[in-house]
Amino acid sequence: MIVVDARTEPLEAVLEQAARVVFGGGTIVFPNDTSYAIGCDPFDSRAIDRIYAAKGRPDERPLTLHVATPQEFLEYAGDNQLAMLAAKRLLPAPVILRIRKPPFVSDELAAALQTLAIRVPDDPLARAILDRCGPLAATTVNSPGRRYAGDGDRSWLPEADLLIERGPARYDRESTIVDLTGAHARLVREGALSEEELVELLGPIERPIVKVRSQS
């Protein structure tokens, strides 16, 4: 794995190296807003397979599509009014948004689900990489009990062709997950973005209903 330090290398050189790997069918580990991520060209089946293999990821768990701008996000969201509101008031943000999968997105990327998980990271370097390389299908490099901070032990990282280091992620929490496929936004997982912040920006937020059964 080639290692590039974005703190010391010129930005254009970092972006060129990332583009060379992605366009060549490779995988990259890059700093995201809440963690480091491993990503690839979302239209390259073999590269996607490599990420699943490197992470030992179950086939039914989709990767998340990362895009550079709110405007690009809207190209996937269609006429979803909640998505339009999120693009205007929320993005970029440390949040994963679930929308209905557009027909031009492969079932492989969405793990045969009818929804698409999509992100516009709140991190300038991540967005610069996405702007240069195009959308990336990605997931966190973290594993239970292990969180990569951009330096130190790399031995446990998933196999990839390029590692771009930049020190710790901007947010020291996992991303928030919000479902935008219904009449109201639904909070799936609270993370770096709180429920209170979401309500302020998007209006009423639904929470999953958890049934508590009696122990008697």
Topology:
Elements: E1 2-5, H1 11-23, E2 28-31, E3 36-40, H2 45-55, E4 64-66, H3 70-77, H4 81-89, E5 95-100, E6 115-119, H5 124-133, E7 136-140, E8 162-165, E9 176-179, E10 185-189, H6 195-202, E11 205-206
Parallel strand pairs: 1-8, 2-8, 4-6, 5-9, 10-11
Antiparallel strand pairs: 2-3, 3-7, 4-7, 5-6, 9-10
Helix pairs in contact: 1-5, 3-4
For the residues shown, what is the average pLDDT?
93
CATH architecture: Alpha-Beta Complex
Cα shape: globular
Give the C-level CATH assignment.
Answer: Alpha Beta
> Cα-atom Rg, whole angstroms?
17 Å
What percentage of amino acids are in beta strands?
Answer: 15-25%
In the predicted model, the low-confidence regions spanning at least 5 consecutive residues are: none
Give me the oligomer status. single chain
CATH topology: DHBP synthase
| N-to-C order of helices and strands | EHEEHEHHEEHEEEEHE
Enumerate the strands of the largest sheet in spatial order, edge to edge or round the barrel: 1-8-2-3-7-4-6-5-9-10-11
**DSSP helix count?**
6
Biggest sheet, open or closed, and with what strands and sense? 11 strands, mixed
Total beta strands: 11
First and last CA, distance:
55 Å
* Helicity range: 25-40%
Q: What would you call the structural class? A: alpha/beta
The CATH superfamily appears as DHBP synthase
User: Please, how many domains?
Assistant: 1
